[in-house]
Amino acid sequence: MTKEIIFEKPAVGINVYKNVFDAKHFLQEFEKETENDWSEISWNVSGVGEESKTTPYRTSVSASLASLMPPYQKTDLSEILYNDIKKHIDRLVIDYIDEYHIPGAVSEIWQLLKYIPGAEYKAHFDHGPTAPRVFSMVAFMQSPEQGGELEFPHFDVTIAAEEGTVIYFPSSYPYLHIAHPVEKGIKYSMVTWFGY
Question: 87 lies in which domain range?
Fold first, then answer.
């Protein structure tokens, strides 16, 4: 039985939806896929900026989900991603676009991020000269045992990293945000950005 989605708006432009999906099956199958040498999917150190520089400022690992989405051929894993997660998220993005009158927004390639204890992404915003993004999405796929919160310091808003939670927010400077270090356990989150 599916839980009812809980909607919260802790600040203007920050929409939080809880109980959106269950990612356990997808994550289990995804990790199996990354163990195969022949797979197009692999974990890489997360980079920062246009050149995707490796830096202690961002210490997660990431995997592109491009090969699991059209126009690539459907696979068992892509079907799990769509049926268990993406179709639920897609409904919410339409609501966000309608609420804020954002015409023609298109998402970048979705990424899956993995944060082990100590991993974090310090204060940053998602828009820049080489990344003209309008709004961003963070979806928590697995809750860590401790830590890993998403904070918007200019709005005094901190959101717990709870599995099944999706957050949409503007990508610009006032929406500077922090992915706090995971203290215990592993946090998985899925991210993308929308622009023109």
Answer: 6-46+58-195
Q: What is the pTM of this model?
A: 0.94
Specify if 1 maps to a domain: no
pLDDT tens figures, 25-46: 999 999 999 998 888 899 999 9
Can you give the three-state secondary structure of the chain, one letter per residue? CCCCCEEEEEECCEEEEECCCCCHHHHHHHHHHHCCCCCCCCCEECCECCCCECECCECCEEEECHHHCCCCCCCHHHHHHHHHHHHHHHHHHHHHHHHCCCCCCEECCCEEEEECCCCCEEEECCCECCECEEEEEEEEEECCCEECCEEEHHHCEEECCCCCCEEEEECCHHHCEEECCEEECCEEEEEEEEEC
Which residues, including other chains, have CB under 8 Å from residue 99's CB and lie 6 or more apart?
Answer: 15
Tell me which amino acid residue 58 is.
R
Q: What is the CATH number of the domain that holds 110?
A: 2.60.120.620
Count of domains for the chain: 1
The count of other CB atoms within 10 Å of the CB of residue 145 is 12
